[in-house]
Amino acid sequence: MLIRLIVLSAYLAASVFAQAPDEATKQTAPIPNPASIDKTADPCVDFYQYACGGWLAANTIPSDRGSWGTGEKLMEENRLVLREILERASQPDNSRSKVDQEIGDYYRACMDEDGVNLRGYDPIKPELSRISGLTDKRAVGDEIARLHRQGNQVFFELSSETDPKDADRTIGAASEGGLGLPDRDFYLNGDERTMQVRKAYVEHVKKMLQLIGESVESAASDANAVLSFETLLAKSSLDRVSRRDPEKTHHSLAVSELVKTCSAVPWMSYFESVGAPKMETLDVDYPEFFRGLNAAIESASAADLKAYLRWHLVHSAASVLSQPFVDEDFAFYSRTLNGVRELRVRWKRCVDSTDSALGDALGRKYVDGTFGTEGKQRTLNMVHKIEAEMKQNLAGLDWMTPATQKAALTKLEAITNRIGYPDKWRDYSSVRIVRDDFAGDWLRASEFEVQRDLRKIGKPVDRTEWPFSTPTVNAGYEPTENSINFPAGILQPPLYSNASDDAANYGAGGAIIGHELTHGFDDEGRKYDAQGNIRDWWTKKDADEFQVRAKCLIDEYSKFEAVPAVQVNGELTLGENIADLGGLRLAFLAFMDALQGKEETAVNGYTPEQRFFLSYGQAWCQLQRPEMTRMRVRTDPHAPPRYRTNGVLENMPEFQRAFSCGAGKQMVAAPACRVW
Question: Would the pLDDT of 20 be above 50?
């Protein structure tokens, strides 16, 4: 299934959380934390500086990170828990469970650095030889299926997904892909920074090809051929803002039409070789891409196409090969693109690799020690309170007509809540895991996942399946299933704790819940109905009213400067900004209800309302390298943390009352934006 998640915070997946680097093993400080506050700042002028200024001054970005913030520290603490699990599971013992054997031997194989280095690039030599032996373009086309079976999505991507017009059915989906740079604009933009990145990319490809035995001259020529071919694919790709519109990325196409659109790919033999079941139609995200792919393949020489395949093979496998490959991959993708100074230590990379390859097996062990029934029930209670506020909010909207209002309430009632961990764990027993074959384990796990995904085509949608592993520090809304997902990994201190008071839990954890709930009604989510089908359930009047309110946020965020001379993209970040604003407002209303009948006492001089907003602001405390910020402004649908804080709060009268912010202050938007 092609998972289209609208996640809480993409930055969490690419970086790590609060405290100084040498404190990484200590438990995350609770929020709101008085030591993080900058009392020289005016909360009505720059609340982010007020809430986080002390923290920003006291912290530095670790050398192996592109950023460092509250959420990242939680990821680091989760890694320590996972490392302990894996170290214990990796000890040879005949009494180990099957799950312990799987995760323990995979981790041990990854940690065998000497063995990995000894093999060099031997694990991919057979496939490199196969590519070198391809005689013509038809043979190149047949190679696509082999690489796709291994999880290497060259040229394009094939997967399963929920049918956008029939959300109970799983169908095949062909999507644009095949690029080595993070986004099409890296190939097409002409600014100096982008041209420097392209130049560095060509140099990186050249060095990687040299590592597999190509001469300097051959590698240089092949690297330029790779850039030229990928640029043709980029020119045919949809821009990132347009890709947020499901009406632009779902096109039902008969297989016979796909064959006509892109005859350069031998589709019938491809489907059979890759392991896809028989299909009459499939969802093609952007047919124009496949026309461009066809033209690109036809215009390229067989030698250039083989160079492209060699590059993507070595690029895909770099993390499981010897140190020169790891170092060169790091040099471009981490240092050049994100400003990271130092490679992450091996045990951390091996924990992440195990979680990626065998996530449900590792998650089963993780959840036993981190997330009890009390945490699940208390979180669920908070979800229900926030859903009740959303229901009341929808029922009271003065700009929405009764017909659309009724459909919105129906969708809200149908939302499924997934808290903590799945009811059914994935079975990896068919994957052969060997404790001295890291590359082989990684490849077999990748092949298992590809086949597991493709086998779902033509079957009913499995609504018990989770989109990410249990230890993940993130959350998501799945529009095709109309579900919100909160894995145990994110329901940990400081974002959520059974020991924290309601101000902290609602301000940090409650805002996450409200955020994901609101995604069901943002500019993308609103185009799906209660069952998860793409369907227009809005009257024209209501859709127009929505657009007016959305434009207010687009204009507001487009004025924010991420780094000097680089603005936030208000259109790209619209869905997340709607969710941030709506989610925090819902969490605040639910918090106010929770306070009913309780004595409102000040803590550290702050009222409950002030602690709520401080908890929200401090959840976003983060330092970020400028290289990473520049890249994420282009590729990340989330605004930078400073504006995920200030951009929301300047539109909230509840915040302004809590901190006595009068008209004319910077944290008082006039007019204020509000969608939900």
Answer: no
